[in-house]
Amino acid sequence: MGDPGMIVLFTVLLPVVGAGLVLLLRKNENAREAATLVTGVVTFAHVLALLRLVRAGETPRLDIVQIVPDVWLSFEVEPLGMVFALVAGFLWPITSLYAIGYMRGHQEENQTRFFFFFAIAIAGAMGVAFSGNLFTLFVFYEFLTFCTVPLVTHHQTEEAKKSGRIYLGILLTTSVGLQLVAIIWTWVLAGTLDFRTGGILAGTASTGVLSAILVLYVYGVGKAALMPFHRWLPAAMVAPTPVSALLHAVAVVKAGVFTVLKIAVYVFGIDLLQTLTTTTWLAWAAAATIILGSLVAFQKDNLKARLAYSTISQLSYIVLGAMLANEMGIIGGGMHIAMHAFGKITLFFAAGGIMVAAHEKKISRMHGLGRTMPITFGAFLIGSLSIIGLPPAGGAWSKWFLGMGTLEADQLGLLAVLMLSSLLGLYYLLEVPVKAFFFKPLEDAHHKDGIHESPTPSLIAICITAAATMGLFLWPDLFYELMQMVVAGGAQ
Fold first, then answer.
1. Would you state the pLDDT for residue 356?
2. For the chain, first and last CA: distance in Å?
3. What are residue 76's phi and psi, to 5 degrees?
4. 360-384 b/e with 16+ CB inside 10 Å = b?
5. pLDDT in tens, 365-390
6. Which H helix or E strand runs over 464?
7. What is the rounded distance in angstroms from the CA atom of residue 245 to the CA atom of residue 105?
8. Buried b (16+ CB within 10 A) or exposed e, 59-84
9. Residues 6+ apart with CB under 8 A from 94
10. What mean pLDDT comes out for the span 164-168?
11. What per-residue confidence (pLDDT) applies to 277?
């Protein structure tokens, strides 16, 4: 495809081109949606071209413009960024296909605006994935925040606007008040903001100072939803379900936990993290979020709200992996970015399909719905198994490596947390398909007989992500290989 640096640039810019096509073709919804799908496929093809280079040991780089001496707006493709880009690149056209069925089936207004900002958000995610330094990462991290606000507030109701203010307020407060301070502090100490194997902060200050910077980073990345900076995520559930899928699997939350992992490996380095006592209590802060998120999810009757708190819990698995500061933890955390993405997007796709086809949001009203929506609830079961960490779903692998990481760190208490969270997940997730398949339909149910599945495009998307979730159990090799490359460099 030509110069590697230009492939990187095209990968970031193609979603912007797609957004422009959405506006140009707004009067013809078929052409508009075709442009969205084609752009998504072409973008993913560029990601695959970069994947071949990364697997060959190359790190394509492109410096755009110098901001201040030694600080550039620049892109660089390395294995951890490739994990995120593969997830976002593959799931964008799938989510777009789902959104076509959902937006039409639910007769949503302002569909052009939705597809426009959806594409722009993927551009932001690609910019985050391929950031060559902390400055570029911060720019695209903030860009992603602003371009997803119109998606959160899509319905323009008072509730949606209030949720948008919570979303923007928490994410901006944490990023500017904490993360930006940490970035400036890093620049003062290290003299650079570049991501380097082994990190850039070792030997630049006392362990106390470096511990403080680590705390600023972990809590400053609000998109990772570590408690108490998590309220933006359930607030955003007011948005249409395809937006929820975007927030929880494709872009926003994954940008958060990816940022935490990238800073851990390429700013601090695994060796330095092992010397900081802060990593232990941050790991326990993540553990607390894992359990508390699960307990709140346990109590929610609204399906999307339950899935939102499940996401808060699952994101902290990745933060925990980073704070374990060992190879197994980092590998498990990186693999969980992908495994959680496919499992959780399947769950949100199913939730949206249930709302469109059966007009139900509450779990207490889903009795017997599995008889009328067997494919949707079957997919929900597969996604649930991945989130719980059970075969034959991909999440079993990432949770295995995270468990091994806790043993390598001699943290049996953290292993117990992972096991308890999975036990809680058994109830709050499997309750849904159990009620759907084994309980009698309610007397006032909308559909009691016959098959009433999601709109066809949405159903195809659900089947693809469910199949991919099981496929990742059988073939996890690619993500494992990429994460092995990460830890091989990060521990130097």
1. 83
2. 32
3. -150, 135
4. beebebbbbbbbbbebbbbbbbbbb
5. 898 898 889 999 999 999 999 999 99
6. helix 456-474
7. 17
8. ebbbeeeeeeeebbbbbbbbbbbbbb
9. 345, 461, 464, 465
10. 89
11. 87
The pTM assigned to this predicted structure is 0.93
Q: Please report, as a single letter, which amino acid is at residue 91.
A: L
Share of the chain above pLDDT 90, in %: 66
Task: Among 82-96, 353-367, 446-460, name the one with the lowest average pLDDT.
Answer: 446-460
- Label residue 284 exposed, middle or buried (CB < 10 Å: 0-12, 13-18, 19+): middle
* Per-residue pLDDT tens over the stretch 287-333: 999 999 999 998 999 998 899 899 999 999 999 999 999 999 999 99
User: How large is the C-alpha radius of gyration of the chain?
Assistant: 21
71, 11, 64: which is closest to 41 by C-alpha?
11
Query: Whole-angstrom Cα distance, residue 420 to residue 286?
Result: 14
Residue 166 to residues 13, 237, 457, Cα–Cα distance (Å): 29, 12, 32
* Ranges of each domain in the chain: 4-490
Contact yes or no for 268/492 (Cβ under 8 A): no
Distance CA 109, CA 251 (A): 23
Tokens of 409: 């760190």
Contact partners, residue 114, CB within 8 Å, separation at least 6: 99, 103, 108, 151, 154, 240, 242, 243
H helix or E strand, kind and range, residue 261: helix 252-263
> What CA–CA distance (Å, rounded) separates 279 from 407?
16
- The one-character DSSP state at 414 is H
- Strand, coil or helix: what is 63? strand
What CA–CA distance (Å, rounded) separates 372 from 10? 44
To the nearest 10°, report the CA torsion of 89, 91, 97, 101: -150
The single-letter code of the amino acid at 96 is: S
Phi, psi torsion values for 38, nearest 5 degrees = -65, -45
- Looking up tokens 């521990």 gives 491
Residues, the chain:
492
Residue 158's Cβ-count burial label (10 Å; 0-12, 13-18, 19+) is: exposed
Q: What distances in angstroms separate CA 352 from CA 103, 159, 296, 349, 442, one per listed residue?
A: 10, 19, 21, 5, 20
pLDDT single digits (tens) 29-73: 889 889 999 999 999 999 999 999 999 999 999 999 988 888 889
* Residues 53 and 4: beta-carbon distance below 8 Å: yes
| Conformational region of residue 203, where left means phi above 0, alpha means psi within -120 to 50, and beta covers everything else | left
Quote the DSSP letter at residue 266: I
* Chain center to CA of 28: 31
